[in-house]
UniProtKB/TrEMBL annotation:
This is beta-fructofuranosidase. It comes from the Eukaryota. Residues 224-513 form the Glycosyl hydrolase family 32 N-terminal domain. It holds the Pfam family Glyco_hydro_32N. It comes from Emericellopsis cladophorae. The lineage of its organism: Eukaryota, Fungi, Dikarya, Ascomycota, Pezizomycotina. InterPro entries: ConA-like_dom_sf, GH32_Enzymes, Glyco_hydro_32, Glyco_hydro_32_C, Glyco_hydro_32_N, Glyco_hydro_beta-prop_sf. Belongs to the glycosyl hydrolase 32 family. Its EC number is 3.2.1.26.
Amino acid sequence: MSSTSPHTPLLKLGLIALATSVSAGAPHSRPCAGPTNAGFESGTLEGWEVVSGDAFGSKSVVNVQTYWDGPFHQDEDFFVLGTAQAGETAVGELKSGSFRAGSVMSFLVSGGYDPDHLYVGLVRESDGKILLKQTGINDEAFLRITWDTSDWRGESVHIVIHDSNTNESWGHINFDDLRVGARAKSDGPGLTFNVLGQQVNQQSAGEEPACTLFEKDQLRPQYHYTQYTGWINDPAGLIEWNGKHHLFSQYNPDGVVWGPMHWAHAVSTDAVHWRELPVALYPSETENENDESGAFTGSAFSDSKGMHLIYTNFTDTNAHPDAVQETVIMASSTHGINFDLYGGNPVVAGPPKGAPAFFRDPKTFHDPTDDTLKMVIGATNNVDGQVRLYRASDTFSWSEVGLVYEGTDGSTGAIWECPNLLPLGDKWVLFYGGLSLGWYEVGSFDGTTFTSEKRGLLNAGPASYAMQWYKDESGRDLAITWMGNWPTPKWPSRPNGWAGQQSITRELFLREDGGLGHRPIAELDSLAIGKTEDLGRRKIKAKTHRLGSENVARLKLTVDLGATTASSFTLSLLESKAEATLLTYNIENKTLTLDTTNAGYGQPGMWEAEIAPEADNKLTLDIFLDRSMLEIFAGDGTVFSATVFPRYQESTGISIAAEDGEVILKDTSLTPLGSSWC
Ligand SMILES: *[C@@H]1O[C@H](CO)[C@@H](O)[C@H](O)[C@H]1NC(C)=O
Ligand SMILES: *[C@@H]1O[C@H](CO)[C@@H](O)[C@H](O)[C@H]1NC(C)=O
Ligand SMILES: *[C@@H]1O[C@H](CO)[C@@H](O)[C@H](O)[C@H]1NC(C)=O
């Protein structure tokens, strides 16, 4: 199980010393000084003016450090907390004193995401025009936004903090530390901010190849699949058909938050280099703008009639009170690009009579026990998760077989989503999502009923949910997981116009201990650019050894545990003088711990898993770094997936340190990887 400790204090290395306070004074003689009290360190709204409403006032300036999910990450002590004066629902506007724009400015923002009603605005004094706007991200932890203001350099401007959102939840915006001029870009030498906000947002898709656009966005992974704009979650419809791998994603093109679900579509010849195709599935048309109906998760199969998508038609029963909430419908294509809805939909009209409405995520598989096409569907009896089984008699005719498996003690959740059932080696594997975690069970299946022998977590890290399996045309069992999860509010890429990412493609196998293992597919080797640095056999003593500086790379280590005398060793990844992701292997209890408490804008916490040493008493780690993404594959088949989102451009360091003795590394290599979009 995972454990988080979001309250560990941040090592604010150097930050406090470097942050010089902006002195009040005549802005005209100091073009880059910014407004008075730009970081609220007076503890008051001195220099700011309440323009309207009661959302802001003398109680708005606070110096609290943490909220329910961790640190605010304000600059120094004080900041404006949008709820402090009059709660979530209050509205109003706060305005800074006037100052001259330089060529760049930056500030911290957090709070609700609502581009029209919650924003920080840059206003030109001469005509009152709002030049730039930035909303929150549905998180209380601050992000630094950087604005290119060179078009207005020298002009008199001010900042407004605007709240016209009356929602009970995320109806507020927080603000801190406006910086104008050179200080806007960094916290001093060696700590240059990654750019979030308008400088990236402004580019429109289609102007440049994805390769260039994705490269420019400093937080954008280069080979983990992302959508250029919008929100994605579950991977769906995974299939290799006529030599091409297809990856669909649950997709909201109209915002960086979840919304009416479409299916985004991408194709690849190697399951590494994806190319976007037109949106494959749309939500049903609606007149009601609050209608959340959509094309939910599902799967793909092919036969002589073409390629078929079979998925959940989710109907928002608030907008359609008499409808069945979830049915199974199909869409087909003869060429794999455009999909036509089947005329006889739905193919399954809903859950069996009397069962709860929750009934989703059909996943097909070929069942060798009776040579038929079957599918599993996630369900519930309101106490335990359930998996229902259906059988096809032809492409569009499906009938219920029964309940293939259900929980008995609620310990993996009261509802199960995204089930997959597959033969693997001489066993069967059932995996599903419950309690916002991915679970697998290894056991047997007789064509009707699954019997579990062993249970475990699909992923030891924080950023994985809704994994989907598929068998490729060479017979390998491959899988892709959403590198995100529901409990986390961390989507720091929102200001850059996108949210959500898919994992690299992995191959599934049965581990030595009978559990489900993951290893990266061989095709990922094609991402290598430049030379692999062979770091050879090394003896690491207590002192920290630098292994390199890369953030789009693959690091492979083999540790000779027999010859190692240290009690533990720690790899420091995505490291600069202010932050790092730590990976510690404890040799005595064989535990690998991932620590992101001081790593960046991503989910802070600690996650651990026991890693069994391999043959010859060695430990291998195969680590994929992709700017903001981190995937760590241990030799025994354990994987940790995490979204880190470093704050600083210099956070690329890789080093290792041994504790109480020596670590013997053999076959260490560091390979720079390129973009899968180029
Ligand atoms: C929050 O407010 C916005 C507009 O101010 C509205 O469009 C949206 O539906 C509201 N969301 C909720 C969950 O109430
Ligand atoms: C989804 O279900 C709703 C409600 O039953 C129905 O109106 C709609 O046509 C269905 N959509 C599709 C694509 O079949
Ligand atoms: C293993 O040991 C380390 C260091 O003492 C400790 O932090 C960790 O919690 C231990 N893990 C387990 C599973 O015992």
